[in-house]
Amino acid sequence: MRLINHIKQHRARLDLTQEDLALRVGVRRQTILAVEKGKYVPSALLAFQLARALGMEVTGLFELDTEGECDD
Amino acid sequence: MIDALPKRLPSVDWIAFGAGLGALVASFVFPPLIMLVGIAVFAPSVLREVGLLKDADEWTRAVMHRAGFHALLVAALFIGLEYISPDFHASVPANGFKPEDVFGGETLRKGVIWTFLISYLIQYWGARTGVFRILLGAAVLNVAPILGFLRTGGELKGLFILVAFGAAAVFVGLAFLARRLPRAGGGVLVALCVAAFAFAVRNMGDPTFAWAQVSLIFQAFLVLGVSGIALLRDSSS
Questions:
Q1: Most CB within 10 Å of its CB: which of B97, B98, B134, B182?
Q2: Looking at the complex, does the CB of residue B60 fall below 8 Å from at least one CB of chain A?
Q3: Burial level of B153, CB count in 10 A (0-12/13-18/19+)?
């Protein structure tokens, strides 16, 4: 199970660069890059900050990818 | 409503990186400046850890913690090798260099700094860009000693310059290979690391093989090994 996000799509919708979004939430561009690529799972605080900066709810920005998970 | 853009964050890391690189190059002319490299490498991390640098960047902190763990692993490896290798020490002439400095002392200190810095940069920039820039930096560092050598002169000046530029050219070639073909580049870097390690171990009994050379090989190829593993991991994920 892993956490997937839709930051890139919503960032594009608002015509924001990674640098713009990074400045809005007070992190570096590399942080946005790492989160978008799924290399870094942000803290709950940063997830809420990202959602707010993109005008979204956290649940609309992040979701659990349960593909391949066993149900038994 | 979307907030207005705040001011760009001041990058303490870039200032420290520039200062560290400058000190490293300048140390070839004035050796005591090498002390500033360690300070520049660890200063931003220490400031963040004690709470004096509040840039609220949790990724940077996570990268710093992981790089610190990698440096700890390398330190443990060198300390362990030093502890279990008394016969190894006895088999090599010192040539003015302390035998224990191969795995402890000099190599341990530089190994920890190199590992921390390389791990930090590779995580921060990403494997391909990170390794590319690190190898270009290694090329510059190969040429930098010429500054000190030109100052003092010597009858082997021409040969020294040729070797320095030849080694720099190899690093530049490896940098572009790592960027264009990361899997192949990673494989070549790891192979070079293993080959250098085997070469160093095989020549331990050679009376012309000095401790300083062994120590240098461990440091230089630690850089290649860490970079190669990062590239292979990145290209397989």
A1: B134
A2: yes
A3: exposed
